C-alpha cells in the first residue's frame, strides 16, 4: 500500500490532521489506530442498556477559540450544555469551582455573608483567585477560608488523584484551583460550550469520511509500518515508546472506570460529583446530563485513579513534576532530529495534558506549518 501520510492515532489530533491533509492538500492518508474504535479518549458509544456513555470519562467541549469551534462545527451540530460539578464536603454538595453559592451552602447565613463581603471588597465580584493567593491573604478570615477549601476540597482529592501530596507536584497544580467570587455554577466560562449533537464518535466519523482517508483499527503502527510506503508520518502516541523508552519511561496516572446502570431516570443532580475525602474513587459521572438522552434509566461510572502500567491500562494524565518535563525534553530533542520523516503532536506525543480544543488547535497549527514548509 502506498500513501502520502501515515498517521498514528485516531483521536482529536490524528483525525484533525487526517481531515486537513486529505481535504486541504488532496493527499492520501492512512490512519492507524491501536484501539478498536476511532475518537481516542473522546470516544462515546451505547452500552448494553442503550445509554450513550463516554467510555474514557466524561468529555465536555469548551473553547474560547472561534477558529476551533468553527472548524469542528463543519462536522457536527451542538447540543448546548454547561458542565456543572459538585464536591461532597461533610455530606453537603457544593459547586466547584468553589464560589459564593458554596459559602452559602456550608456556613451560617451571617458568616457566609461576612466572607462574601470580604471577598468582594478585596478582589471584586467576578474575580477568580488562585487558592495559594487567598492563603497569603493578610486577612485572618480569608486565610481561614483558604485553608478550609484547601483541606476539604483539594488536599485528599489530590492525594487520591496523583498518589502524591500537593507539595510533591508542580505548584501549577494547586495554583490552578480557584475560588470564584461569583454565583455562576458553570465549571467552564468559555465562550463556546457544548456536546456534539449526535455524539463525539459520529463527529469523528464525519471528519474521517473522505476518499483520501483510510482507517485501520486494532493495529499498532509498528505491525504495519514496514509494509506501507509513505512519505511522512504523524505520530500521536506516547513519545517515549516511539523511541523504545531509551531515556526511561514517562510517568502517567491512569484511571479505572466502573460502570453501573440504575433503574431510575437520574442518579445525581449534575454530570460530575467529586468525593474529595471519602471512598477510593474520586468522582461519579453521569453522562446523560451531557448527552441529554431521554430514557427512564441511567448509567453512571465511578472513577478510580490507578498507577499506569503500559499494556495493562491507559496513560491518561502526564504527572506534572519537574523531572518528568526534563525527561520529556530529551525525547523532544530526538524528535527534532527526525522531523523530516516524523512529526509528533497530541497529548501523548507532547507529554502534555490538552483539553480537546487545545489538541485541535495544536493540530491546526501543525497543518499550517506543513502547508508553508
Ligand atoms: P488521544 O485521544 O489519546 O488519541 C491518541 C490515539 O492514539 C489513541 O486512540 C491511541 O489508542 C492511539 N495510539 C497510541 N499509540 C498508538 C500506536 N502505537 N499505534 C496505533 N495507535 C496508537 N478535554 C476536554 O476538552 N474536555 C473534557 O471534559 C475532557 N475530559 C477528559 C477526561 C479524561 C478522563 C481525560 C483523560 C481527558 C479528558 N479531556 C477532556 C482531554 C481529551 O481527552 C484530550 O484533549 C484528547 O483526547 C486529546 O486527543 P489526542 O488525539 O491528542 O489523544
UniProtKB/TrEMBL annotation:
Keywords: FAD, Flavoprotein, Isomerase. It holds the Pfam family NAD_binding_8. The keyword Isomerase applies. Transmembrane segments: none annotated. It comes from the Bacteria. Its cofactor is FAD. Residues 152-353 form the UDP-galactopyranose mutase C-terminal domain. Belongs to the UDP-galactopyranose/dTDP-fucopyranose mutase family. This is UDP-galactopyranose mutase. It comes from Brevibacillus porteri. The gene is glf.
Amino acid at each position: 500500500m502506498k500513501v502520502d501520510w501515515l498517521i498514528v492515532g485516531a483521536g482529536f489530533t490524528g483525525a484533525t490532521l487526517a481531515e486537513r491533509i486529505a481535504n486541504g492538500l488532496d493527499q492520501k492518508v492512512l490512519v492507524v489506530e491501536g484501539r478498536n474504535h476511532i475518537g481516542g479518549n473522546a470516544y462515546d458509544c451505547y452500552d448494553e442498556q442503550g445509554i450513550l456513555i463516554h467510555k474514557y470519562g466524561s468529555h465536555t467541549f469548551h473553547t474560547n477559540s472561534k477558529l476551533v469551534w468553527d472548524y469542528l462545527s463543519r462536522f457536527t451540530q451542538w447540543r448546548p450544555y454547561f458542565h456543572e460539578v459538585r464536591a461532597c464536603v461533610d455530606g453537603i454538595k457544593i459547586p466547584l469551582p468553589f464560589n459564593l453559592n458554596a459559602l452559602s451552602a456550608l456556613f451560617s447565613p451571617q458568616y457566609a455573608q461576612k466572607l462574601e463581603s470580604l471577598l468582594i471588597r478585596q478582589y471584586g465580584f467576578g474575580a477568580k483567585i488562585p487558592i495559594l493567593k487567598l492563603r497569603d491573604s493578610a486577612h485572618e478570615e480569608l486565610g481561614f477560608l483558604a485553608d478550609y477549601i484547601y483541606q476539604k476540597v483539594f488536599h485528599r482529592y489530590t492525594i487520591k488523584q496523583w498518589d502524591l501530596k500537593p507539595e510533591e507536584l508542580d505548584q501549577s497544580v494547586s495554583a490552578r484551583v480557584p475560588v470564584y467570587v461569583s454565583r455562576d455554577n458553570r465549571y467552564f466560562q468559555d465562550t463556546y460550550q457544548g456536546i456534539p449533537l449526535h455524539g463525539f464518535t459520529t463527529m469523528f466519523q464525519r471528519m474521517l469520511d473522505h476518499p483520501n482517508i483510510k482507517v485501520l483499527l486494532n493495529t499498532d503502527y509498528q505491525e504495519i509500518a514496514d509494509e506501507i510506503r509513505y512519505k511522512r508520518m504523524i505520530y500521536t502516541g506516547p513519545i517515549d515508546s516511539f523511541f523504545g523508552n531509551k531515556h526511561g519511561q514517562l510517568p502517567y496516572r491512569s484511571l479505572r472506570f466502573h460502570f453501573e446502570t440504575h433503574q431510575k431516570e437520574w442518579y445525581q443532580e449534575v454530570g460530575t460529583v467529586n468525593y474529595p475525602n471519602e471512598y477510593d474513587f474520586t468522582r461519579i459521572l453521569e453522562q446523560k446530563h451531557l448527552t441529554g438522552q431521554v430514557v427512564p434509566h441511567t448509567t453512571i461510572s465511578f472513577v478510580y485513579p490507578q498507577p499506569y502500567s503500559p499494556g495493562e491500562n491507559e496513560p491518561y494524565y502526564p504527572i506534572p513534576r519537574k523531572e518528568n518535563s526534563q525527561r520529556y525534553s530529551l525525547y523532544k530533542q530526538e524528535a527534532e532530529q527526525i522531523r523530516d520523516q516524523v512529526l509528533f503532536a497530541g497529548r501523548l506525543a507532547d507529554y502534555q495534558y490538552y483539553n480537546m480544543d487545545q489538541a485541535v488547535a495544536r493540530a491546526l497549527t501543525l497543518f499550517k506549518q506543513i502547508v508553508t514548509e
